[in-house]
């Protein structure tokens, strides 16, 4: 004999959960604080604007203009001049073994060509294998050049000052010419943040009932498993909303990540992802015997989420076995989905495949969780 | 036939690992009765009660609760049963009112607010309604839990040591309430370790090592065991106690201050012992009616032997 879903009981569980959430300050701080911390740590560690990068100069010519350029590169604090190289090979070697991040090449006859208005070019060879490191410095360079122009050219050489500028800077990036890591990784962080907090909080919240014995009172009442499940999960969906909101603001303001796709597609995507993670947390709660165990198992699921989803390493570059594992991880599909939406302007149709994959994973998880969930103490 | 019993179980069995914790347990609780459930620690009382209200799945046996099958109709049983757990298991981080309100909502109690308010008044906790349940003293927690399990006016109450740690006045109030409910037709199954509570029950079942040893109307229990008791008073009662304990015909010696209760099942042999000691020493020996307490202490001693025998 099965009773219909009681909305009143669902509401009661929901209310209770909210009250408990409000009284549990530590968890509450964790739910909002940890995502912000993760964003800042991950975001800045990866998207930092590092200064004082080791730089070498290859000076085939020397004069007031080149000296002014080097001096103002130095004062910009992005570049730290550590020495001189005498040949292109030497500079290349330094870049390759990492002793220098940049090599500035002042070509032969540079000063003369500036005066003659031949627009000679300075070469900035950059190690872009760590694109975040190179990016800031390279971006700063154009500002430096402008400053030098307006100052140096105002004296004896003022007549060369009007446009076009008397020399150019060619930036040559090695190893990773695209270099879009920061923009790529910050959206991925939402997958990690939601996964960590949603899975862990749900698992712990349910296991706590069993550990404290309140589960016995709860299941001695006529409450149905589905009412418990939805009632306990729903408050954390809202937490997921708050986390997503914080994420959007921080990623926009601090990391300048664009959002060019369909907000509706994003909405559908992250809701689905939140639910699949909550369901996973619920599943873990049916396995774990204590809150401690629930926490450990949750952390364990975080590992493949970070390593095999394409968050850390490009998915396509992973070995086959890793791709196979990766493709049953919800984060893998969410990662693709959110990158498509935020960076590539995708709408709902473009992400239909990812949504389907997440839905399938979710159905399996919910199925197993409900089967494992016991309305008894056995 | 089944209609006159609120609980009727047969052959109830529960195995944890390789231990049979409840072993072919039978019990029939008449409607409206107060039924005491006794037994030493770890004898399987809590496990049995949990099986009756659908919290544990029995490994064997059948039965019904309020005319509903305990194996297939747990949900309907839960609607009409109030179960008070042995360990406090309401939410410590909810207030007293929130706890009562939550439980009432689980049972979809009609005019809930009124009911909760009344429960708070009955408890005498109206002015502390907003105190967190976790900050209540042990006895008050028990009383709150009791109020919570009765909030939906169940027709069967399963109370697992409801008065453990409750002061005498509150215990008396509690039993007054139980008798009042019983008079209204509510059936109460209550486990307890207190003899003064056992004697208040209409029926008693005694369980040890998962097996039911005896069950029947409370006042008949000592007679059913066939226990005869002598009450002994006099000087140097401690020495006498030691001497009597080594007598093979004496089943048990229980000391209550300066009084000894000497019991055994063999009436003649026990009388012979009494006469022997009366001749030697100046103690006063008096035949008395065996009481529940002696009966249970006797049962416990016997059960240990049974169990050891079975284990060999
Ligand atoms: N979930 C469980 N897993 C394994 N063993 C259990 C479990 N629950 C109870 N037991 C064992 O079953 C036996 C009976 O326990 P139960 O709690 O029913 O005893 P009790 O009669 O209620 O004791 P008490 O008077 O101390 O409350 C005990 O030996 C206990 O260790
Ligand atoms: Mg018990």
* Spans where pLDDT lies below 50 across 5 or more residues of chain B: 305-312
The helical percent of chain A reads: 55-70%
How are strands sequenced across the largest beta sheet of chain A? 2-1-3-4-5
What is the H-and-E element order of chain B?
A: EEEHEEHEHHHEHEHEEHEHEEHEH
Question: Based on helices, strands and strand pairing, what is the structural class of chain B?
Answer: alpha/beta
Beta-strand fraction estimate of chain A? 5-15%
Outline the fold blueprint.
The complex is a heterodimer of chains A (378) and B (312).
Chain A: H1 7-23, H2 25-46, E1 53-59, H3 64-75, E2 79-85, H4 88-97, E3 102-106, H5 110-116, E4 121-127, H6 131-152, E5 168-174, H7 181-212, H8 214-220, H9 225-253, H10 263-287, H11 291-307, H12 320-326, H13 330-344, H14 352-372
Parallel strand pairs in A: 1-2, 1-3, 4-5
Antiparallel strand pairs in A: 3-4
Helix pairs in contact in A: 1-9, 2-7, 2-9, 3-6, 7-9, 7-10, 7-11, 7-13, 9-10, 10-13, 10-14, 13-14
Chain B: E1 5-16, E2 19-30, E3 34-38, H1 45-52, E4 60-65, E5 68-69, H2 74-80, E6 81-84, H3 96-106, H4 112-123, H5 138-149, E7 156-160, H6 168-183, E8 187-191, H7 195-198, E9 203-208, E10 211-217, H8 221-225, E11 228-233, H9 237-245, E12 252-256, E13 259-264, H10 267-280, E14 284-288, H11 292-311
Parallel strand pairs in B: 3-8, 3-9, 6-7, 7-8
Antiparallel strand pairs in B: 1-2, 1-4, 4-5, 9-10, 11-13, 11-14, 12-13
Helix pairs in contact in B: 3-4, 3-5
Bound molecules: adenosine-5'-triphosphate and magnesium ion (MG).
Explain how this protein is built.
The complex is a heterodimer of chains A (378) and B (312). The longest helix of chain A is centred in the middle third of the chain and has 32 residues, at 181-212. In chain A, strand 1 (53-59), helix 3 and strand 2 (79-85) form a beta-alpha-beta unit. Chain A contains 14 helices and five strands. Chain A is α/β, with parallel strands linked by helices. Helices cover 64% and strands 9% of the residues of chain A. Chain A folds into two domains: 53-174, 3-Layer(aba) Sandwich (abc type-2 transporter like fold), CATH 3.40.1710.10; 181-372, no CATH class. The model of chain A is unreliable at 175-180 (pLDDT under 50). The radius of gyration of chain A is 28 Å and the shape is elongated. Chain B is 38% helix and 28% strand. Chain B has helices spanning 45-52, 74-80, 96-106, 112-123, 138-149, 168-183, 195-198, 221-225, 237-245, 267-280, 292-311, and strands at residues 5-16, 19-30, 34-38, 60-65, 68-69, 81-84, 156-160, 187-191, 203-208, 211-217, 228-233, 252-256, 259-264, 284-288. In chain B, strands 6-7-8-3-9-10 form a six-stranded mixed beta sheet, sandwiched between helices. A four-stranded antiparallel beta sheet of chain B has the order 2-1-4-5, with helices on one face. A four-stranded antiparallel beta sheet of chain B has the order 12-13-11-14, with helices on both faces. In chain B, helix 3 (96-106) crosses helix 4 and helix 3 (96-106) packs parallel to helix 5. Chain B is globular and about 70 Å long. The model of chain B is unreliable at 305-312 (pLDDT under 50). Chain A binds chain B through residues 1-3, 6, 8-9, 11-12, 15-16, 19-20, 23-24, 212-224, 375-378, and chain B through 50, 53-57, 72-76, 78-79, 81, 83, 85, 87-94, 98, 102-103, 105-108, 148. Residues 45-46, 86, 160 of chain B line the site of magnesium ion (MG). The site of adenosine-5'-triphosphate has 11 residues of chain B, from helix 1.
